[in-house]
Specification:
Strand order of the largest sheet: 1-2-3-4-5-6
CATH class of the largest domain: Alpha Beta
CATH superfamily of the largest domain: Ribonuclease Z/Hydroxyacylglutathione hydrolase-like
Number of strands: 14
Strand content: 25-35%
CATH topology of the largest domain: Metallo-beta-lactamase, Chain A
Order of helices and strands: EEEHEHHEEEEEEEEHEHHEHHH
C-alpha cells in the first residue's frame, strides 16, 4: 500500500513523503531541510531509498546531502541541466523514473527556473494519478518567474493542464490563501473562488494543509490555468490597458496575470 504525507518545513514548505507500507521504503520529494524528514522517517520506521528533486532552489535541495549521508545507496534523481549537482541520477524531460511499482514520467516545466521538472504518474496513489510539481503550479497560483519567461511558464502549465482531470497536484508550498486573495481581487464575483476560499480558511484554522488540489478543480478556479477563459481574459485586457502592457496573445494575457500577482 502506498501513502503520501506532507512533512512541513521552513515557514510554508511541504516536503512530500511517498511510502510503501509493505516494504517500509520511502521516497522523498524536494527536501529543503533534512531534520524534519529524518524525524518523520524515524517516527514511522521508514527507510529512505530515493529522493526526487524538481529544481535547484535551496529550499528544495538544502537537506539532500545530509539525508543521503544517512541512507546508504539512496538515489538522488534530479534535472540534468541544473545548477544543482548533487544528484546521482540525472534525468531529462521524457525520461521515466521507476520506484517500487510506480513509474513517473519526467516533464520539463521551465518558467520558475530553467531546470524545473515535474514528476507525474498515472498509477493511482491514494486513489488518484499523482503530480509532484515543485514550484510550477500552486493551488490557485503558479511560481514566480525567476529565470524563465511568461511564455515558457504558460507552455509548462499548459502541459500540466492536459494531464488527467483526476490528478492530485502536490505542490511544494502552502501559498493558497495568499493566492486566493489575488484571484478574488481579479474575479470578485467568482462563486467557486468564494466557496473555496472559505473552505481553505477553515482548513488552515484547523491546522490542515490545503494541498493537494485536484487538477479538474484548478482548471476551473486557478487564474494561471485560465488564460483563455473569457472571464479572465476580459479582466487581463483591462489590466493591460491600465498598465500599458500588450494583450494580443494568450501568452500576453498570462503575462498580465503574472504581472498583476507580482504587484499585488
Amino acid at each position: 500500500m502506498l501513502t503520501i504525507s506532507a512533512i512541513p518545513a521552513f515557514n510554508d514548505n511541504y516536503i512530500w513523503c511517498l511510502a510503501d507500507t509493505s516494504t517500509n521504503k520511502a521516497l522523498i520529494v524536494d527536501p529543503g531541510q533534512a531534520k524534519p524528514v529524518q524525524d518523520y522517517l524515524d517516527k514511522h520506521g521508514l527507510t529512505l531509498d530515493t529522493i526526487l528533486v524538481t529544481h535547484h532552489h535551496p529550499d528544495h535541495v538544502g537537506g539532500v546531502k545530509a539525508l543521503a549521508e544517512r541512507s546508504a545507496d539512496c538515489r538522488i534523481i534530479g534535472p540534468a541541466d541544473s545548477p544543482f549537482k548533487g544528484s546521482t541520477s540525472f534525468v531529462h524531460p521524457g525520461d521515466e523514473v521507476v520506484w517500487e511499482d510506480v513509474t513517473f514520467q519526467v516533464m520539463g516545466v521551465p518558467g520558475h527556473t530553467l531546470d524545473h521538472i515535474a514528476f507525474f504518474t498515472d498509477v493511482k496513489i491514494a486513489g488518484r494519478p499523482t503530480l509532484f510539481c515543485g514550484d510550477t503550479l500552486f493551488v490557485c497560483g503558479c511560481g514566480r518567474l525567476f529565470e524563465g519567461t511568461a511564455a515558457q511558464m504558460m507552455e509548462s502549465l499548459k502541459s500540466l493542464r492536459e494531464l488527467p482531470d483526476a490528478t492530485a497536484v502536490y505542490c511544494a508550498h502552502e501559498y493558497t490563501l495568499a493566492n486566493l486573495r489575488f484571484a478574488r481581487s481579479w474575479l470578485p464575483d467568482d462563486t467557486l473562488l468564494k466557496k473555496f476560499e472559505r473552505q481553505c480558511e477553515e482548513h488552515r484554522e484547523a491546522g490542515k494543509p490545503t494541498v493537494p488540489a485536484i487538477l479538474a478543480d484548478e482548471k476551473q478556479r486557478n487564474p494561471f490555468l485560465r488564460w483563455d477563459d473569457p472571464q479572465v481574459v476580459a479582466v487581463a485586457k483591462q489590466y493591460c490597458v491600465e498598465q500599458g502592457l500588450p494583450d494580443d496573445s494568450d501568452s500576453a494575457v498570462f503575462a498580465a496575470i503574472r504581472h498583476g500577482k507580482d504587484n499585488f
